[in-house]
Design goal:
Number of strands: 6
Strand order of the largest sheet: 1-2
Strand content: 5-15%
Structural class: alpha/beta
Largest sheet: 2 strands, parallel
Order of helices and strands: EHEHHEHHEHEE
Distance between the termini: 24 Å
Shape: elongated
C-alpha cells in the first residue's frame, strides 16, 4: 500500500478534510501533517491587508457597472453585475504576482536544476502550501518527478493569467496537471 504525507491547507473541518483526501488520493494511506502548513500570523495579516484593498476596489468596479447599467435602462441588480464583473471584468494577474504580494519569493525555472534534493523538496512544499493559501489546488502529477513538477509549477501554473479576486471570496482554482 502506498503512503504519503499530504501538506495542504484544508481548514479545520475534519470530515471535509477526510473526504477530500480520500477523493483525491484514493487507495493511499495518508498522514495529515499540520506542522508543514504555511500558517504564520504575519502572513495572515498580510493576506487580510491585500484582500481588504481588493474587496474595496472590486466593490467600486461593481458599483460602476451597476450605475452604467441603470443609466442605459438595463437591470441594475447588484448580484448579477457582481457575477459579470468576476467572470468578465475582473483585472488579470498571475499566481506568481499574488504570491509575491504576500511576500513569497518564487525562483525562476533556471534555478531549479541547481537545487539539492532536500532544497527541492522544501521549495516544492512551500509553493504547494502557498498556492493552497490563495485557494489554488493542484490535482494529478503523480507521474511527474518532484523536479519536473516544480518546473511545471514555476513555468506554467504560476504564470497562467487568472482573475485578481479577493481570497476572502472563498473561490477556488483547481489546476489539473497534464498526463504527459
Amino acid at each position: 500500500m502506498n503512503c504519503c504525507t499530504v501538506r495542504i491547507r484544508l481548514g479545520h473541518d475534519r470530515r471535509f478534510r477526510s473526504r477530500f483526501l480520500k477523493w483525491f488520493f484514493p487507495g493511499q494511506t495518508l498522514r495529515f501533517d499540520r506542522s508543514a502548513l504555511v500558517d504564520s500570523d504575519e502572513l495572515k495579516r498580510r493576506l487580510r491587508e491585500v484582500d481588504a484593498g481588493k474587496v474595496r476596489e472590486r466593490g467600486r468596479r461593481i458599483d460602476r457597472l451597476v450605475e452604467e447599467a441603470a443609466s442605459r435602462g438595463e437591470d441594475a441588480d447588484r448580484l448579477f453585475w457582481t457575477i459579470v464583473h468576476d467572470l468578465e471584468h475582473a483585472p488579470r494577474t498571475t499566481n506568481r504576482r499574488q504570491l509575491e504580494e504576500l511576500g513569497f519569493r518564487i525562483p525562476s525555472r533556471c534555478e531549479v536544476p541547481r537545487l539539492s534534493p532536500a532544497a527541492l523538496e522544501a521549495l516544492l512544499q512551500t509553493i504547494l502550501e502557498s498556492l493552497a493559501l490563495i485557494h489554488v489546488f493542484v490535482r494529478g502529477g503523480k507521474h511527474l518527478s518532484k523536479r519536473c513538477l516544480l518546473e511545471h509549477l514555476i513555468e506554467v501554473v504560476l504564470e497562467e493569467p487568472v482573475p485578481d479576486l479577493p481570497h476572502a471570496l472563498a473561490s477556488r482554482q483547481w489546476v489539473d496537471l497534464p498526463d504527459s
